[in-house]
Amino acid sequence: MMDRAAEETVDSKTDAAVKGEAAIKQRFLTTKEKFHEFVDSEWQSLNGGNSTKDEKSADSNETNVEEPDAKKAKLDHEDRNKDRKADGKRFRGQNKSRPHTKPTTYEEKRLCLSVFKENKECPFGEKCHFHHNISDYMSTKPADIGERCYLYEAFGKCAYGLTCRFAKAHTTPDFKTLENADVIKACEGKTSIKNSLSKDLQNRLRKHSVDFKKSAEYLKTLSNNKEKSKQQGNGDVGAAEASTGEQQPPGAQTQVIPEILTPVKTVGPLTDVDVIKLRPCERKQVDFNDKLYLAPLTTCGNLPFRRVCKRFGADITCGEMAMCTNLLQGQQSEWALLKRHESEDVFGVQIEGCFPDTMTRCAELINNNTEVDFVDINSGCPIDLVFKKGGGCGLMTRTRKFEEIVKGMNYVLDSPLTVKIRTGVHEKSNIAHKLIPEMKKWGISMITLHGRSREQRYTKLADWDYISTCSKLASPVPLFGNGDILSYEDAVKAKETGVSGIMIARGALIKPWIFTEIKERRHWDISSNERLDILRDFTNFGLEHWGSDTRGVEKTRSFMLEWLSFMCRYIPVGLLERVPQRINERPPYYTGRDYLESLMASQHVGDWVRISEMLLGPVPKNFNFLPKHKANAYK
């Protein structure tokens, strides 16, 4: 009897160990040790025996990260404490204080800009720290990555000249840069990137000389309304005391909610301002219904990645979350998040803030200086840095400020205003259904609801039943649902809830071809070579966006590695025992149908670096990379 009980215990533990794993055909399954032994030996043979057996461990030292262990099933209370810190908290979340290496540090000494522009006189003279002798620079420059330059082939000339890491394609033996006149003429007059920050606007923002006329009108009206409500409140208190004959206790007030008045005159002669001002029905309209919306993704949702997703059928794209205060200060890095490629036909920007004055001014700044189809308010960001100051999810609990922000932004914008929210702040206390009817009154053009609370993060599945309820409350305002979409079957089920459209976030990072699958209603058993071609497209777009010099190459590599930390979770359709793969199912260790497919399945940072080296050449000696997330799904 004891033996049978022991066997049953072992069986139950075995079942628990595989609980939550994706079902893969038995012949592809392997162990962690055998998987890495296979990947390392094949890589060594493909590289002509130049790689050492300790290469991956060296990569781990360079990147300062170990591969996460396989995620374990939920344990009993006693066993659960073994996987906790001394203070009882679990190991989870982000890798804080990641090492930040500036791309400029990858070059010992750069070429002076004066030589680069063929202007032999350097304004810094002998104090200049850069190379002025081309021969000296070329002797220290890292080796070229390839024989073909994407920028030269696409635009007829490479703006990075001798510093380009593909300079052989457009450089003569005497270090002169070649140009293709026919291609240059064909590209003449075309502007592929919009919404760049001009030096003039940046200087005016830094000197606080930008005129926010419409914002000033709204904020003045808002201030007057608050004063008026204060006076009304005091009058109501006096009236209450007179009628009851009782004195109100100290500090007690009768709360009067001020209504935001429209500062347009309704009495008197008709002025030019009245004629020119757009009425709500005359504003720019965007048809949001039945569209596939690529979510604004911090870090990974950059312009080159959005271009990849547009090729696969994403209908709506949105820039990464930008802080309104940084935009108002003219920070170049923050304005880069607003850039738009010509292929993005329906494009919006997402801004975060917690005060009506800064958000209204930022909206007016965007309205006057960029080309966008809509502006989105981030009211769903869960990170502490944003939440604790009242932004992101914090706005959902500050409805008075939220209303003032929405009405102020609507007053200064000529394009639709949208908002992205969560179910609520706390896991078992949904509040979105209370906010949505109010937001309809405030003038929101579209609402996106992520089916999780701030507290919940990604520990449980998105609540699509609740999204369905909120969709009915939002009608006729479009409501997009977001959460756990990884296949066209998931998208079909989501559409059945009655939402106007679907927003896709992690699903697009894991498999950007998900938009094609949804539109063609099929499972795409994409090959490893096709996936490598996608990464090659991203590489070319990255070199175009960030540059083809060493600085641009390493910046492209870092963003590719961030993306590969998600992409490695994809399991090819042909290997699955049960189709489709669920987003909450972690992949077990498996070998693919070819070596590249196996390499792309690796959860080790060293193997991601190897993939990047196939496209961007060897990493520099001082290269360092630590993933943003600790991959909680695999711990």
From TrEMBL:
C3H1-type domain span: 106-135, 148-173
Zn-finger region bounds: C3H1-type: 106-135, 148-173
Compositionally biased region (Basic residues): 91-101
Biased composition (Basic and acidic residues): 68-90
Top EC class, one word: oxidoreductase
Database matches in SUPFAM superfamilies: FMN-linked oxidoreductases
Compositional bias of kind Polar residues: 42-51, 244-256
Cofactor: FMN
Residues covered by region (Disordered): 1-21, 39-104, 223-256
UniProt function note: Catalyzes the synthesis of dihydrouridine, a modified base, in various RNAs, such as tRNAs, mRNAs and some long non-coding RNAs (lncRNAs). Mainly modifies the uridine in position 47 (U47) in the D-loop of most cytoplasmic tRNAs. Also able to mediate the formation of dihydrouridine in some mRNAs, thereby regulating their translation.
Protein name in UniProt: tRNA-dihydrouridine(47) synthase [NAD(P)(+)]
